[in-house]
Amino acid sequence: MFTHLKNIETAFQHIKRFSYLLISGCILISGFALYKSYQFASATNNHVYILANGKALEAFAADRKDNIPVEARDHIRMFHHYFFTLDPDEKVIDANIGKALYLADESARNQYNGLKEKSYYNNLISGNISQQIQVDSIQLDMNQYPYYFKCYAIQKLTRSTSNVNKMLITQGYLRNVSRSDNNPHGFLIERWETLANRDTTLSP
């Protein structure tokens, strides 16, 4: 009888040790699975897929600080594009200027109002003049905030009888604002002014 009880106790000890090992193994496997799942989720969050023309293109997420110079230059370029790309059509002018004014403060609106008072836009319409801009370079100082910039561009005016090229130099500052549909880069141009806007057209 005692031998039988001893065998039962020994079996119970074996079962208990086996249960501990099994529980420990389950905990280790569960912890490893959770770790790998978190690792996979983190890696997935850093990938962005963009659908373009029916094709899925992979992009990579990055901190904004890594892209500030790129986004800032594009913001400046887009502002100048909208402000200076004009056709002899009042609706086109209003649409482009409206987009530009979302990207800058009252300094841009003041320049727009000044040009409007001088009948600049009416002259474009009456003279059937198209105006385009080509940004050559943008100097950006990231060592101070708001970020100072200077923009160098060529302004092209196309008339029915002639073409005029002007060298345009502007400067201003960029500060951070909330992103929106009208301001996707999250910058606002401040204290914007024109330093030079002179004719560079060569005489025939």
From TrEMBL:
Keywords: Membrane, Transmembrane, Transmembrane helix. The keyword Transmembrane helix applies. The chain crosses the membrane at residues 20-38. InterPro entries: Conjug_transposon_TraK. The keyword Transmembrane helix applies. This is Conjugative transposon protein TraK. The lineage of its organism: Bacteria, Pseudomonadati, Bacteroidota, Sphingobacteriia, Sphingobacteriales. The gene is traK.
